[in-house]
């Protein structure tokens, strides 16, 4: 608000300076040099006021920026404060001793599993591995096994057997 009021004051001074300059010219034309000098001194004083006003406006704008930045800093500090409170609450829930206990239990469980894996992997010797491979080959062969071939010798001539009863012999069919 102060900045806006100073801007309005600055405008009024600028308009007043223009009027006084024009009036000083008129006084010089009319031959009133003394009055023109007095008016120019007043104008000079108002120009100095105008410069001071400009400096005050700059100071006010800088102050407004500082206030806005301080408000941002306050929000950051408030956020840090809330974050710190949250961390403290989390630390109360989970103590260093509790974390160390959990990590220790996890490491023990991993070590136990590693020992089980070593026992399982290390309990089979090379002979056991060979036996397992032979058994695997045997199972594979069983799946591919063909039916057994008869062991008795095959007859020389196969007797003719007609699959259909009462079938006329080929000679009879030709004679009819």
From TrEMBL:
Gene Ontology biological process terms, A to Z: late endosome to vacuole transport via multivesicular body sorting pathway; protein transport; vesicle budding from membrane
Top-rank taxon, per record: Eukaryota
Keyword Transmembrane found: no
Native species: Campylorhamphus procurvoides
PANTHER family registered for this protein in UniProt: CHARGED MULTIVESICULAR BODY PROTEIN (PTHR22761), CHARGED MULTIVESICULAR BODY PROTEIN 6 (PTHR22761:SF5)
Region span, Disordered: 144-176
A single cellular component GO annotation: multivesicular body
Family of this protein: Belongs to the SNF7 family.
Chain segments annotated as coiled-coil in the UniProt record: 28-70
Alphabetical keyword list: Coiled coil, Endosome, Membrane, Protein transport, Transport
Keyword Transport among record annotations: yes
Annotated protein name in UniProt: CHMP6 protein
Subcellular location: Endosome membrane
């Amino acid at each position: 608000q102060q900045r806006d009021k100073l801007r309005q004051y600055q405008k009024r001074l600028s308009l007043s300076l223009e009027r006084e300059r024009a009036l000083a010219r008129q006084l010089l034309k009319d031959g009133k040099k003394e009055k023109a000098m007095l008016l120019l001194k007043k104008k000079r004083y108002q120009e100095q006021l105008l410069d001071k006003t400009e400096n005050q406006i700059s100071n006010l704008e800088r102050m407004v920026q500082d206030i806005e930045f301080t408000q941002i800093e306050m929000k950051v500090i408030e956020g840090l404060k809330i974050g710190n409170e949250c961390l403290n609450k989390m630390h109360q829930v989970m103590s260093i001793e509790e974390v160390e206990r959990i990590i220790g239990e996890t490491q023990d469980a991993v070590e136990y599993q590693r020992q089980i894996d070593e026992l399982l992997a290390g309990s089979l010797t090379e002979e056991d591995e060979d036996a397992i491979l032979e058994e695997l080959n045997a199972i594979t062969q069983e799946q591919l096994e063909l039916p057994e071939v008869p062991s008795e010798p095959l007859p020389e001539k196969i007797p003719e057997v007609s699959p259909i009863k009462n079938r006329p012999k080929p000679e009879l069919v030709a004679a009819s």
